[in-house]
Amino acid sequence: MYPDTPLRLIERREVERRVGYRRKRIRQLELAGKFPRRIPMSARRNLWIESEIDHWIRDHIAAARCPAVTLTRAPRLR
Questions:
Q1: Phi, psi of 39 (to 5 degrees)
Q2: Taking Cα atoms as reference points, which of 12, 14, 1 lies closest to residue 46?
């Protein structure tokens, strides 16, 4: 992905705090391809890549300040 960038994973509560959405809305956006996908770590634990969440937030700030900017879909993890 990004070989020179240290990879940091964050939990759902941190994602909710950063983006201002709750679990249900985040899941809706994920399923629509409009939010970074979670990484399942176990049956009950999911994490997100911090840099993808930060990128998503920056995209939304740019779109709010410049209506001509269109939001891109979140990258799919393989």
A1: -115, 115
A2: 12
